[in-house]
Structures are given as C-alpha cells and as structure tokens.
Amino acid sequence: MSAMRYTYLGPEGTFTEAALRTLPEAATRELVPMVSVPAALDAVRNGQAAAAFVPIENSVEGGVTATLDELASGEQLMIYREVLLPITFALLVRPGTELSDVKTVTGHPVAQPQVRNWLRSHLPDALWESAASNADGARLVQEGRFDAAFAGEFAAARYGLKPLVNEIHDAENAETRFVLVGRPARPSAPTGADKTSVVLWLGDDHPGALLELLQEFAVRGVNLMLIQSRPTGAGIGNYCFAADAEGHITDRRVGEALMGLKRICPKVRFLGSYPRAGVSPAEAGVPRPGTSDAEFISAAEWLARVQDGRV
Fold it and tell me: Is 63 helix (H, G, I), strand (E, B) or coil?
C-alpha cells in the first residue's frame, strides 16, 4: 500500500538511505529507492508513496538545487521532518585496485566540493565525472566504468567494493540536511524548536525589492536560517527565493511575517513548519523582546481598545 511506502534518492547505499533509516517509522515502511529527486517526489504527487526523503542542504555546498526547484514548482508538497547526517566519504574501488591505478573518479555533484582539496593532493590527474548519486557512482565502479567512487563506507559491501581510503572530507563537521516530504496537510503541532520553509516570488525587479522581503521577517524578530535565490525559468534576472525561518506558522511573529509577505509577493508557497533536527526547545531560546505571542496578543488587545474608544 502507498500509505506504507517511502521513496528516497537511490540506489541503495546512499547517504539519503542512511539518514532515512534513522527515523523510527522507517522500520515499518517499505523503502523504495528512486533514480532522482524528481522521481522520488513525483511518486508522492501521483499517490504511489506516502512520503519522499530527499537531501535539501549541505553545510559545504549549500542548497540542493534539484530539491529546491522541485519543491518550488509543480503540484505543492510539504516538509514534515528533517534529519541532519554527518558526512564523510570513503574512496571505493574494486578489490585489487591501488591508489596509483585510479585514473577516473565519480560521485554525486554535491560530493565534489567536499573532497576537492583531497583530490588535488592525492589524485591531481584523475578525471571526475558526476553520477546521479554517490551510491550510483559505486555501482558504476562495480560495473568497471570508473576506477573509484566517493561514497559512504557503508556502500562498499553492497557493491562488492573495498574502501581504499576512509574519512575523506575537506571540511570538518560537514553535514547534509534531509527532509521528509508529503502531500499538503495541517502542520504538526509546534514544539518550541521549529522551522518554517517558504518560497517567495518578487512582484517586480526594483531597487530594494529583496530588502522588502527581508524586512517582513526582521521587523517581527523572525530569524532567517537560509535564503537562496533560484531562477524561475522566465528569463535572465527572474528569481524566486527559498527561505527557512526559525519558528512555527502558529507563532504570531511567523504568521504575521507570512501575511506581510503575502501582501507584497505575487506568490508565496508554504513548504511546512516542522521540528528542527537536533535542537531542543531550551536550546532554541526565547523570542526577542517585543516578538513573543503574549506581546503580539497584548498589542492587538490594545488596538481593539483604542478602536472602541476605551483608552
């Protein structure tokens, strides 16, 4: 049944699969690898799966454009969960291969910036060609199409390879953020440590247009965690903006910021309010003075009294 099926960026052995298996419900779902992020999300849109699990941001490379673009276009979907996974690579090769034998390497495009310096130091003459995923790169090595692939060490046994070098990363503490995406529904209840994701379109290109968007968050004390421009496809200079903000849509400051954005943007796509991975309510802290729900409510009550002539 589709209600018990989760799709993810495959094939088997990807970091995406490893992150997905950290979710408790993954043990009771049918996990189906897909060839691409669009394929994983389309399975949700057409009812073949209840949810899709895909990468959306990397601490070295930034936003995963395939995911951001898919969520910004097509039939609307919503984010319900996020997972952070520490990322370190192994150089996977066929048994018997030595480092001096490696002339061609592959991996997901997001992997290359995370191992670029290592490649320059240890395999300066190796030719890189991107694969659909790191695990797909491992499969291509297994088939003999490349000499080595950058992937998770856990993928080696699955593809009959061996890790020639482990713990490869240019940046310490590199992480990738993954999201569980489903069909639109009521967001989960606020936890006190939440994140709200939206996509915003500018009405027209004029000086200060982006500043106007940012001010809707700033004047209400809403902290932005990510903002990234993406081309709309309508020509050079036409962009939309993917943004992640601290807080939940039911928080007064976040809700009012979204209403302000809806007034000035021709299109606002709500992508969900969901718990922040690895952050407790105590760690999330308290809103800035003047931006708590109680203070918004008090201000609204004051305005009502003024309008009624009671002040």
Answer: strand
